[in-house]
Amino acid sequence: MARIDLDSVRKIYPGGVEAVKGVDLPIEDGGFVVLVGPSGCGKSTLLRMIAGLETISDGEIRIGGRRVNDAEPADRDIAMVFQNYALYPHMSVRQNLSYGLRNRRMARDEIARRVEETARILEIDAFLDRRPKALSGGQRQRVAMGRAIVREPAAFLFDEPLSNLDAKLRVQMRGEIKQLQRRLGTTSVYVTHDQLEAMTLADTLVVLNGGRIEQAGRPLDLYRHPDTTFVASFLGSPAMNLLSARVSGGDLRVGSLPLAARLPVPDGPVTAGLRPEAFRLLPDSTSGAFRLDYVEELGSTRLLHGHLEGQRLVCQMGIEHPLADRMTLDLDPEALHVFDAERGRRLDTAWQRAQIRSLA
Amino acid sequence: MVENRPLLTLLAHLALIAGVAVVAFPVYLAFVASTHPSSAFLSGTLPLVPGDHMGETYSRMLFSGVSTSGAPPLWLMMTNSLIMALSIAIGKIAISILSAFAIVYFRFPCRALAFWMIFVTLMLPVEVRIVPTFEVVANLGMLDTYAGLSIPLIASATATFLFRQFFLTVPDELVEAARIDGAGPMRFFRDMLLPLSRTNMAALFVILFIYGWNQYLWPLLVTTDESQYTIVMGIKRLANVADADPQWNNVMATVILAMVPPVLVVIGMQKLFVKGLVEQEK
Ligand SMILES: Nc1ncnc2c1ncn2[C@@H]1O[C@H](COP(=O)(O)OP(=O)(O)OP(=O)(O)O)[C@@H](O)[C@H]1O
Ligand SMILES: [Mg+2]
């Protein structure tokens, strides 16, 4: 078990692609960090640099305080779980688990003990002598996890380990990974592009965009106070509504509709962010600004798709609320996020923080 | 595809039987001829059932040979052929799997050049380069040796190419997982690539063994000593006697015996061979 530190780490692939553009990230001992972001944002590259599978172009990576830039993957005391599992096809499950230990010349009875122990934890004892070919996807996934656990490394690295599983199994394994990590207390770095997986697993959530950290922090903090429109729209499903708006004299208007007043925000164009579940719509057939287009039923809630002042808006509310073609917004101004219109940075951070403090 | 239509099955069997007959009948004739005295073959009408000279002909050919046509005993020639075929097959596999390993997994200067040079040699079979090769072998004093028989035939672009193609299908993640598990290059080769190429090696072994066993031109050139003759040369020598009719029973016995080792190899390796041709272990 160890902490991992990334100091202004950069990766420039041969050919000039700069996949990681200066990442600083301290990972606490025993922490569970999830790297999330759209395809091509450099998540895998960053993880593989920690693993030692990619060279580090610039900056420094330390595992347990030791600089590992030039260390071989095997000498970094890490274990990795791959998306396609990468089990050794010609070896039995038992041999798959023990291969790394045998290469480290560990004593036989110790290997046997660890394999048994791991198999018991992951409930794969029943097929220790089978080849990977004779296992289901979920079982292979467990074996891949087992191969990491049995090594008792300082850190686990996961690269989208669940994306080859069906939806139901994914949810189940997600829970198991979380519990297992808690129990073993092993520092973990987990890459995914699934924001739900990221939110549920992470102690620390790191949103990457174009090779840079967009925002890092506790999942709920990121959800509640996204620093940028990118984070705001990436986390949460359905995604946050982002409306073009204008502030003048502290009043925020979308088109001609006033949404909030007395904002400590300079005049000019802004982007107003509204979580679909953070407001309600009330029927108002005469003056309602929201025009309902269609409704998606989700069971306990429904999604209302429509337009507000010519901009698309989605609202999520309970099925008990009445519907109408035109509706008005019932909005708590605190639910409103205000971003710089050009660069997408949050403008009202200080104000929002003060609000939170006064509530607490 | 599993079909269950009796008529189709019958038809398929008939076609297969016809095919087998076309291939097997000449072999059967050769066998029959080898069991009759030599006069039977020359009389014009070939008997269709085996005669009673089998034991006599075969033991004579195997253990004493026919000195008049300069053919040593068959067991000696077969041993020579076996050594040559095994060295060629094993040598080819060993060299090409190693070169494919180097080309696929290591970054070294002129790697592409090395690959293309190997590839270009595909266009230069033994027959084309036979004179310079003979010169080299002669200068090295390897005439009339097993080394001279087999080494010049060992380099193989085809096998290198096949192994390269196979290695390219091995997923990168497998290589990386092994690296994280502490396997260096040679251990990766031994623990992953070798076992994974098992079926490919078996298929290649069968093909290359037969290739080596059937070599004719090269052994003819580099061997002058009777004790180094190979069985394929022996057949030719027996059939090609000056001023006399060939002893067909002897020739046919030699042919039949010459077929036995390749057949045994094919039968022994059949399961792996077919696996190597049709499926790749994932
Ligand atoms: N070997 C390579 N050579 C050059 N560029 C590369 C190489 N590998 C990745 N890249 C580039 O680096 C960037 C980041 O790639 P990376 O694989 O880290 O993305 P990712 O965030 O893991 O995406 P995904 O979610 O699709 O897996 C991409 O633009 C990709 O094209
Ligand atoms: Mg990736």
Automatic annotation (TrEMBL), chain A:
<dbReference type="InterPro" id="IPR008995">
    <property type="entry name" value="Mo/tungstate-bd_C_term_dom"/>
</dbReference>
<keyword id="KW-1003">Cell membrane</keyword>
<keyword id="KW-0547">Nucleotide-binding</keyword>
<dbReference type="InterPro" id="IPR003439">
    <property type="entry name" value="ABC_transporter-like_ATP-bd"/>
</dbReference>
<dbReference type="InterPro" id="IPR017871">
    <property type="entry name" value="ABC_transporter-like_CS"/>
</dbReference>
<dbReference type="GO" id="GO:0055052">
    <property type="term" value="C:ATP-binding cassette (ABC) transporter complex, substrate-binding subunit-containing"/>
</dbReference>
<keyword id="KW-0997">Cell inner membrane</keyword>
<keyword id="KW-0067">ATP-binding</keyword>
<dbReference type="GO" id="GO:0140359">
    <property type="term" value="F:ABC-type transporter activity"/>
</dbReference>
<dbReference type="GO" id="GO:0001407">
    <property type="term" value="P:glycerophosphodiester transmembrane transport"/>
</dbReference>
<keyword id="KW-0472">Membrane</keyword>
<comment type="similarity">
    <text>Belongs to the ABC transporter superfamily.</text>
</comment>
<dbReference type="InterPro" id="IPR047641">
    <property type="entry name" value="ABC_transpr_MalK/UgpC-like"/>
</dbReference>
<dbReference type="InterPro" id="IPR003593">
    <property type="entry name" value="AAA+_ATPase"/>
</dbReference>
<dbReference type="GO" id="GO:0008643">
    <property type="term" value="P:carbohydrate transport"/>
</dbReference>
<keyword id="KW-0762">Sugar transport</keyword>
<protein>
    <submittedName>
        <fullName>Carbohydrate ABC transporter ATP-binding protein, CUT1 family</fullName>
    </submittedName>
</protein>
<keyword id="KW-0813">Transport</keyword>
<dbReference type="GO" id="GO:0015794">
    <property type="term" value="P:glycerol-3-phosphate transmembrane transport"/>
</dbReference>
<dbReference type="GO" id="GO:0005524">
    <property type="term" value="F:ATP binding"/>
</dbReference>
<dbReference type="InterPro" id="IPR027417">
    <property type="entry name" value="P-loop_NTPase"/>
</dbReference>
<dbReference type="Pfam" id="PF00005">
    <property type="entry name" value="ABC_tran"/>
</dbReference>
TrEMBL record, chain B:
<feature type="transmembrane region" description="Helical">
    <location>
        <begin position="151"/>
        <end position="171"/>
    </location>
</feature>
<dbReference type="InterPro" id="IPR000515">
    <property type="entry name" value="MetI-like"/>
</dbReference>
<keyword id="KW-0472">Membrane</keyword>
<dbReference type="InterPro" id="IPR035906">
    <property type="entry name" value="MetI-like_sf"/>
</dbReference>
<keyword id="KW-0813">Transport</keyword>
<feature type="domain" description="ABC transmembrane type-1">
    <location>
        <begin position="78"/>
        <end position="269"/>
    </location>
</feature>
<dbReference type="GO" id="GO:0055085">
    <property type="term" value="P:transmembrane transport"/>
</dbReference>
<comment type="subunit">
    <text>The complex is composed of two ATP-binding proteins (UgpC), two transmembrane proteins (UgpA and UgpE) and a solute-binding protein (UgpB).</text>
</comment>
<dbReference type="Pfam" id="PF00528">
    <property type="entry name" value="BPD_transp_1"/>
</dbReference>
<keyword id="KW-1133">Transmembrane helix</keyword>
<feature type="transmembrane region" description="Helical">
    <location>
        <begin position="113"/>
        <end position="131"/>
    </location>
</feature>
<dbReference type="GO" id="GO:0005886">
    <property type="term" value="C:plasma membrane"/>
</dbReference>
<keyword id="KW-0997">Cell inner membrane</keyword>
<feature type="transmembrane region" description="Helical">
    <location>
        <begin position="251"/>
        <end position="274"/>
    </location>
</feature>
<feature type="transmembrane region" description="Helical">
    <location>
        <begin position="192"/>
        <end position="213"/>
    </location>
</feature>
<keyword id="KW-0812">Transmembrane</keyword>
<keyword id="KW-1003">Cell membrane</keyword>
<comment type="function">
    <text>Part of the ABC transporter complex UgpBAEC involved in sn-glycerol-3-phosphate (G3P) import. Probably responsible for the translocation of the substrate across the membrane.</text>
</comment>
<comment type="similarity">
    <text>Belongs to the binding-protein-dependent transport system permease family.</text>
</comment>
<feature type="transmembrane region" description="Helical">
    <location>
        <begin position="82"/>
        <end position="106"/>
    </location>
</feature>
<feature type="transmembrane region" description="Helical">
    <location>
        <begin position="7"/>
        <end position="31"/>
    </location>
</feature>
<protein>
    <recommendedName>
        <fullName>sn-glycerol-3-phosphate transport system permease protein UgpE</fullName>
    </recommendedName>
</protein>
